[in-house]
Amino acid sequence: MLLVANRGEVAVRVLRAAADLGIRTVAVYAEDDASSLHVTLADRAVALRGPTPYLDVDQLLDAAEGCVAVHPGWGFLSENAAFARACSDRGLTFVGPSADVLELLGDKRRARELAASLGIPVLDAPPGTFPVMVKAVSGGGGKGMRAVFEPAELDGAVAACRAEALAAFGNDDVYFERLMPSARHVEVQLVDTSVIGDRDCSVQLRHQKLVEIAPAPLLDPVLRKALHSAAVSIASAVGFTGVGTVEFLVSGDSFAFLEVNPRLQVEHTVTEMVSGVDLVRTQLLLAWGGDVDFTPHDRGAAVQVRVNQTSGGVLGAFALPSGPGVRVDTHGYVGYRVGTRYDGLLAKLVVHGEDLDVALNRARRALGEFRIEGVPTNLEFLRGLLARDVVGATTDFVVEEPVTGMRAPLAGTVVEVSADAVVLEAMKMQHVVRVSGEVLVSVGDTVSEGQVLASGVGESTEDVAEIDPSFVRPDLDEVLARHDFSRPEAEAKRHARGGRTARENIADLCSEFVEYGGLAIAAQRQRRSLPDLIERTPADGLVAGVGVVNGSRVVAMSYDYAVLAGTQGMRNHQKKDRLFALAQQENLPVVLFAEGGGGRPGDTDHSMVSGLDCGSFHAFAQLSGQVPLIGVVAGRCFAGNAVLLGTCDVIIAVEGANIGMGGPAMIEGGGLGVFRPEEIGPLDVQVPNGVVDVVVESEEEAVAVAKKYLSYFQGTTAEWACDDQRLLRHAVPENRLRAYDVRAVIDTLADTGSVLELRAGFGKAVVTALVRVEGRPIAIIANDPMVNGGAIDADAADKCARFLQLADAFDLPVVSLTDTPGFMVGPDAERTATVRHLTRMVVTGANLTVPFGLVVLRKAYGLGAQAMAGGSLKVPRFAISWPTGEFGPMGLEGAIKLGFRKELDAIEDPDERKTRYDQMVAMAYEHGKALNVASVFEIDDVIDPADTRRWIATALAPSTSRPQGKKRPFIDTW
C-alpha cells in the first residue's frame, strides 16, 4: 500500500500510476481540500488537521498505517530529509533518494558547494555583489526567490523570501546567487545516474515556469554534452537514486549550476513525451524493487504549458482539449471549488509532435480548445504568449503578466466593498485596501495576491492609522493588570520571617527573565470563583521561565510558598513539563527553588484518578547528566517538591530548612506518628547524611552560591588572581606524622575566591570542591589527613564517586590531591558495606572520560591511593608528587609489622626491637620516597609545590566542545 503525501495534480498523477501497477493507495487531504479529485481516486483517504497539514510529519506518518511506502510528490516535504528519515524509522520506503542525499542536495547551498568541488561553474555572490538573487535553501517551484538590483532592496527581499519559504517548505533559510541576466534555464532529467533527457524552462513569470520545451532547442551539441556530464558527475558523487533534475543557466556557450531537485518535478511530463519513459511508474517500480527499463528513446519534440488559476471560485465549465499528441494532466472537474491557499496550477497541457514546429502549433490549437468558467485563469495570457516566438527565449522573456488596474496586496476573501475600499479577510484578519475606479470584485469572492480589485490607476494601499505610542488600549490595560503580581500582605509575612518571595529570588538570580505561564491559576474553578483564583493563586504557585545568569541562559523556577503552600498543582506541573522540555531541547541548566508541600489534593479541573501519569518527575530526571540541575531550599520542602530537589546535582539549603519525602500529614496518615514540620529532616540530619551539599545563612547567600555553582559550567573566566604559590612549599609539614589543613592547600592552589566545596559535612575524609585554575573550571578531590588520617571510608568513597560523575558529565577536568593511607578497614568498616562502596569509587574513576591529573601531597598507599589515581598511576594525564610524597602497597609501619613480624619478635630486648623497627621504617620510607619512585618512572615527576598550577594549566588540555545530549545516562543522586 502506498501513501501519497501530497495534493492536487501531482497526487492524481501518482495515484493513477499506482493503480496501473495494482498498488493500493492512501490519500491525505486538508479540511479545505476535501473535494479535491485525488481524495476520490485513492482506496482510502485520511483527513489532516491544523494550519499546515501537508507539512505535519506526525499526521502524515499516522495516515500511513498499513502502508509500505510513501510518495512525497513535489513541493511540501518532497525534499525534507527529516521526513525521509521519519519514514524509514517507521519502516516505510520513501519514494525518492536517501535521507542523506536529500539533506545534501535539498540544501541548495551545500549542493552548490558540491558542484564547485567537482569543477562545475557556479554563481558566486561575494558580499556587496549586485544584482543578486535571493533564494530559499529548500524547496523549489519559484517560491522564496527575489531578484535584488539595489542594496536598499535587499532587506525587504530577504524578509519576503523567508516568509514565502517558511509557508511552503517549513524552512525560512535563504542564500544569495549572482544574478545572470538574459540566460536560458535548461534542466537535465535523471533516473539514478542516467540521463533521460533535457528541457528548456526559460519562459517564466515571477520565477514560475510557464512553458517547457523538450529537448532544449538551439543547444550546441558540445554544450548539451557538457550539461549532461555535469549532471551525471553530481549524481554519481552522491550515489543518487530515483528521479531527479539538475538545473543550469546557459548563456552563449557557457553555463552555471543552479540547483538539484532530488524529486519529481512539475515539468517531468514534457520529458516523458519525448523519451517514452513513464517517470512516476519508474519511481514506483524502483521503490518496490522491480526490474525497470528506463532507456530513453528519441521521439521528436514536446511542449508543456501551465494553466494557472488567478483567483478562486467554482468550476462551472471545464472542457479540455484533445486530439493527436495532446495530453492534459489536471485535478479539476465541473463543480470543483478552487481555493487560493495552495499552488495555482490547475492543469498542464502537454503536446507532442514529430518536430518542434508541429508541437508548438498543437499547443496553440489546444489552448484554443480550453473552456473554463467560474474560475479566472491565465489562458488568454498563455494564448498571447504562444503567439510569440518562444524558441530560444531567456528567463527575462516574460517580465510581467500584462494586467491593468489596482491589485490585491494579499490573498483573501472579500468581506466588504465600498466606493473607495475593499476589505479582505485572510487568516481570520481583515485588511482595508484603498482603491479607486470601478470595483471589480464582490463580497464573497476569493482573490489571490496580485488579482485586480478595481479599474483605477496606481497601487492599492492598506490603511495605516496614526498612533500615539503612549496610549494604552483597554485590551492591553487588562493584560498589564493581570501581570501585576504584587501581593503586599503575603510579601510582608515573608519578609517578617526573614525570607524573600519567589519573585525576589528569581529577580536576584537572573539579570533578565521572561516568565512562562504567569497568567496560569489553580485548577479549581469548580470550587472557587475566577476572581478569587486570580487574586490568590497567581502563576498557580510556580514562577517559571527562561532567564540569564552570568551572561548565559538558564531555566529558572521557584515554587511560591505564599500560594497554596508551594504545592504542586495541575497547571504548575504543565509549566514544569514545558520548561523541562525547553531545557532538554536547548541544553539549558535548571535552577529550582523547591520550597513547598508536595502534591495538592484540592485541584478539581481534571479527570485524573490516580494522578500517577504526571510526567514532570520523569522529565526532570531525564535531564540529569545533560544539563546542570541546581536545587535551592529555604523553609519546608516535602514530598514531590523534595523529589525534584533530590534529583538535582547540587542542593543548597538555607539554615532552618526541613527536607523530607513526606510531610506531617503524610506521616500521620501512614500511622507513623505525629510530628511537627521542624522535626522532619532538619539540616542537622540532612547535612551529615549527605543530602545537602552547601549550607548557607540566607536566601540571598543561596542565590549567590547558585550563581557561583553555575559559573563552573559556563566556561573560563578571563580575569583571575591567585596567592603566592611558594606558600605551598610549606603547606605539608616536614614531620610526616603531623596532620595539616588540606583546605588551605586547595585555597592557595586555586584562583582567589574560586573554591566552592560540596558536601563538606558528609564523608569528611575526602574534600570535593569546584575551583578555577587560571580561570578554568576544575573539579578537585582531596584526602583530608585531619579525618581518619585521610583513610577513605564508605561515605567518603560515595561522595567522591558522585562528584567524579558530575565532573565527567559536564567535562570538568579532575585534579586529585592525594594523601591517604588507603581504604578504611576493619570489622566496623565492613558493617558499612565498604566492599561495594569503595569499589564504586574505583569503577567511577576508571571510567572517567575527562582529563585527570594526580598530585601526591604525602601518602599514596594501597588501593585507596590507586582509587585516588583513577585505578593506576598510569591512568592520569600526569602523576606527580610533592617532595613529601611517599608510596607503597600499604602503610609503611603496617607493612613492616606485617612483613617482618617473626624477625622483630625474635629480638628479645624491647629497646633493640624498637630500634630495629625504626630502622626498617626509615629504610622503607627511603625506598618509597617520591624521588625514588620517580627514578624508576612510576610517576612523571617530583615537583616544587609552587609549580603545581603550571602543571595543571599546561598538562590538562581542555576537552573538545561538548556534544549535544548526554555523555552519561545520569548523575547518581547519591
Give a concise summary.
It contains 32 helices and 44 strands.
Shape: elongated
Distance between the termini: 53 Å
Q: Widest sheet: strand order?
A: 13-12-9-10-11-14-19-17
Largest sheet data: 8 strands, antiparallel
Estimated share of beta-strand residues: 15-25%
Question: Rounded to an integer, what's the Rg over CA atoms?
Answer: 38 Å
Described by its quaternary structure, the protein is single chain
**Count of helical segments?**
32
Give the helix level as a range of percent. 25-40%
Residue stretches low in confidence (pLDDT < 50, at least 5 long) are none
Average pLDDT rating: 91
Secondary structure: number of strands = 44
Helix/strand/pairing category: alpha/beta
Report on this model:
With 974 residues, this protein is an alpha/beta fold. It is 31% helix and 23% strand. The protein is built from 32 helices and 44 strands. It has an eight-stranded antiparallel β-sheet. A hairpin with a 2-residue loop joins strand 29 and strand 30. Helix 28 packs across helix 30. The longest helix has 19 residues, at 910-928. The protein is elongated, with a radius of gyration of 38 Å. The mean pLDDT is 91.
